[in-house]
Amino acid sequence: MSSNAYDLAKEAYKAIGVDTEAVIERLSSIPVSIHCWQGDDVGGFERPSAVLSGGGIQVTGNYPGKARSVAELRQDIEKVFSLVPGPHRLNLHASYGEFGDTFVDRDAIEVEHFVGWVEWAKRLGIGIDFNGTFFSHPMADSGYTLGSKDPAVRAFWIEHGKRCRKIAAWIGEELGSPCVLNTWVPDGAKDRTVDKIGYRSILRDSLDEIFETEYPTEYLRDAIETKLFGIGSEAFVVGSHEFYMNYAAYRNKMLCIDMGHFHIEEDISDKLSAILLFQDEILLHVSRPLHWDSDHIVLYTDKVRAVAEELVRSGKLEQAHIGLDYFDASINRVGAWATGARSMRKALLFALLQPHERLRDLEEQDKGFTKMALLEALHTLPFGAVWDTYCERFSVPSDTTIIDHVDAYERTVLKGRN
């Protein structure tokens, strides 16, 4: 990107009251938590060959180059970091610990299994977020975990949840940055359920037991994730949106909103101001739903932009923990990873490059046409020149040159794994 193109863009935005340098500086302080599970199709490393079964997790495709070990996964993540502008965090699932040659079940995981990840994060200067892995396990085959009416199943998953919180708090303390621990369970039924309130009371009590131990908030932030429906739970999801909204309010927990967990016609951005009016923080899992409960690669779409715009307009951008959640094994995984992370960054930049106070004033003055015209004008302003400059300042490729970087990595690294 020539400096002349950016200078012209800078002047164009200045004409509507936007300082592009201030915008770039602000965006450069907002981390995005990039999920580990895109690199190996949500398999994890508990066993030599992870096989996904149950829990509503489904990955399609078998493109060459899947990470087969923690070392390969870290190598791929570092490559993604080099392709995405801005500060990063890593979003890690409990099933990605380093367990050695001995199988360690979910109710027995310890801090020691994540020391390598923390040392790696220290070397890179990034924070880590964490997730309990309540799926793809024989103890989840019934369709229920924390909401199970089987005491043994329930006890197993409660212990897993407790251990995840202990590990997450340790991660936050070690890295000097609060670890956001997200808890999502796949509990639900494929067809009609009679005792819905019974299952939900069990889930409530199980969560209460997991959250019983208090950890310093400077080390650990607890989040709970809602869901409308999923594969195998089309008729009933125990941890519905209404369940977790109430639980979060009454138990003072952070709500996690996953864009892939709602009907595709729902406006996820509209939920944010309603939630952030009453809660100090929110966790977002940004994905792209297509016709079904799904986690497609994030693209620079209207819905993603609308979420970014609402975070900025509400004045709550710094109170939002932005994480990504998608997985696609039908194309180059590193390219998919980088595309989604860059698209989220792009949406945030577009949202920040708006004269929000002026737009709000126009709305209050009932100048609907002027507001509409200004919003429309934003789509043809030289946004691309600002984006290219932002990428340059983080020494990452442009939208066109990234193709060569991903292709080269595939030739020199990924193809050797087959």
Could you describe the 3D structure shown?
There is one protein chain. This protein has 418 residues and is α/β, with parallel strands linked by helices. It has a single domain, classed as TIM Barrel (Alpha-Beta Barrel), CATH 3.20.20.150. It has helices at 3-14, 20-27, 70-83, 115-124, 151-175, 196-210, 241-251, 268-276, 302-313, 333-352, 356-364, 368-377, 383-393, 402-412; strands at 32-35, 88-93, 127-131, 179-183, 188-189, 220-225, 236-237, 254-258, 282-286, 320-324. Strands 1-2-3-4-6-8-9-10 form an 8-stranded parallel beta sheet, covered by helices on one side. Helix 8 (268-276) links the parallel strand 8 and strand 9. Helix 1 packs across helix 13 (383-393), helix 8 (268-276) packs parallel to helix 9 (302-313) and helix 9 crosses helix 10 (333-352). The mean pLDDT is 95.
